[in-house]
Amino acid sequence: MSQITGAPTPSDTSVSQETTARFKRRFMVRLVAVFIGGMFLDGYILGIIGPVTGLMRSDLKLDELSLGMIAAGPLLGIFVGSPLAGWATDKFGRKPMFLVDMGLFLLASAAQFFVTSGDGAVIQLAVIRFFMGVAIGGEYSIGGPLLSEFSPPKLRGRLLGLTLIAWYIGFMVAFIVGTLMHDAGTPWRVVIGTSTVLALVLFVARFGLPESPSWLITKGRREEALAITRRYIASPEMRDSITEEIDLRMLQEAEAAKNKTKIKGASIGMLFSRQYWRTTLFTSGFWFCAVTPYFAIATFADDVLNQFGFGGGWAGGVGLSALAAAGVTTTVLLIDKLGRRILTVPGQWLCAGILLVIGVWANAPSILVLVLFLAFSFFNAGYTTMTQVYPAEVFPGELRGIGMGFSAAFSRIGAALGTFALPWAISNFGMGPSMVVAAVVALLGAILSQWLAPETKGRTLAEISENFSH
């Protein structure tokens, strides 16, 4: 077995010394903070548009198509940015890409202040918010692997799950900030440009972060990985995990040398190889099926809430997100105690049944529909938390970035269908059939997870990727 206490090379002595437990705790707090800050920004840029839509519509003379282009910009950007950044982070490293990614977001966010009011305003905003989406997509495929590769197995699920809580909080804070600034008569460019402040803070905070030991191991830089482990990682389980990854990599290299072959680098094609296709199918399919019904039910939400006088305004913009955040929070508190599967599979079967009842029971009492809707929001948000956990765990180190990036990109197809296709379906086929289709999507997710979802609680990344990918 490899040993953490092995002698470092001379080039590594600057980071090889042991540090205090306090230093290591402060590092983990910093790493978690800068990553969840990126997810907070994701929710923020999507939530900040709502309160100023009216101002933008009147100032820029926007029609529905133009508004749709501006709203779709980040989703398209995430679709492009996630796999692209995933490939780059597996090739060039987590550390440089983590900084470059937030730098891109900072520049794009600041550009919102300078959007003109002429004929090109729509194109300008759509392009700017597309690049903001590219950066947010990068957060999924760079930050997720980086955090998972530094997190102790007994806390990894909780720390990864915190990112989704940050998303909901970001959305809620954006709605509050946007509404207050709108009521105070603040120009809409200033309102949507407020994300620049946090982006600047996060960009500065990312300077000086170390490279991931797991990524270094995939590049054969074992002594550097050990040196960083000594300096930044306090968890005995994580130290053992690093040695396991080194041993596993050495076995792979020995086998490749014996067969006179080379270990392939990260590529989209590897995700569909005989070794990893189940991993890719599960992570991307599960994520797709989790978010598509969410956007479907969110479309239905205002119709239900309006019947009770709660639609729109503070109750619609903040209350519903708070309920979903409660579902995520519950999952985060339980994930490292109960495990992944029990918080993933049953909830999907339940949500499929809820959507089916809403779709089939056309004359259901309004209060029952409301209760079902609230239950769906809570349980769907709960298992959707796993979309931030599973992809960062089940892919091996050399594919962790591109695997998570591909899964995130594939999920954006579901988000787009829920956002744009469902309203069309409701107007052309009716609410009932549309909800039945949403139920079928949730059902497919339940079947897929029942078949493939692994239990990864308390296991090292090396153990998970070795067992799940073979």
Automatic annotation (TrEMBL):
The chain crosses the membrane at residues 31-53, 65-85, 97-115, 121-147, 159-182, 188-209, 280-301, 313-335, 342-361, 367-390, 402-426, 432-453. PROSITE patterns: MFS, SUGAR_TRANSPORT_1, SUGAR_TRANSPORT_2. Keywords: Membrane, Transmembrane, Transmembrane helix. Residues 31-457 form the Major facilitator superfamily (MFS) profile domain. SUPFAM superfamilies: MFS general substrate transporter. It is a multi-pass membrane protein. The keyword Transmembrane helix applies. Its main location: membrane. InterPro entries: MFS_dom, MFS_sugar_transport-like, MFS_Sugar_Transporters, MFS_trans_sf, Sugar_transporter_CS. It holds the Pfam family Sugar_tr. It is found in: Cell membrane. Belongs to the major facilitator superfamily. Sugar transporter (TC 2.A.1.1) family. This is MFS transporter.
